[in-house]
Amino acid sequence: MSDQRHAPTARSKPPPAGEEEAGAVLKLGEFQDVDTLTLSEASLVINALMAKRRKDRKDRNETDALNQTLDYLDAFARFKAKENVEAVERLLSTHKELSKFERAQIGSLCCDTADECKTLIPSLADKISDEDLAELLDELAKLL
């Protein structure tokens, strides 16, 4: 065996799997400050990309995984109209006290109450009051 030295990689080694956690304290590892999409935004982006590929006749790469992802997004994306998806993003982006991940979760889950939302997204507990969260959820519900 030869002892070859390799050039260092451009990225640092990712943390060991399983260290990410979306609990009372967000521990998202390398995804901590990454832009996050709601399911509705992801659906909009992927469907637009697929429409363009079909138009350009470059749809040879549709895999089972991609089709299953589209089926999942069609089933669970709550906001279907592009205008509503954009309105949800504008509304959520006004809440700078929340992380990008938390905003995306709120926009994807569309909870009925602040209590339900804080139960499903525990990191919200000390970041936003129940009254402010209830108001946000009411505004989101109007866009459904």
TrEMBL record:
Biological processes, Gene Ontology terms: DNA-templated transcription initiation
Superkingdom classification of source:
Eukaryota
Per UniProt, the keywords (alphabetical) are: Nucleus
Which subcellular locations apply to this protein? Answer: Nucleus
Descriptive protein name = HRDC-like protein
- What are its GO cellular component terms? nucleus; RNA polymerase complex
Taking the first listed entry, what is the main subcellular location of this protein, grouped into a coarse class?
A: nucleus
Which family does this protein fall into?
Belongs to the eukaryotic RPB4 RNA polymerase subunit family.
Q: Name one Pfam family in it.
A: RNA_pol_Rpb4
Any one Gene Ontology MF annotation carried by this entry is: nucleotide binding
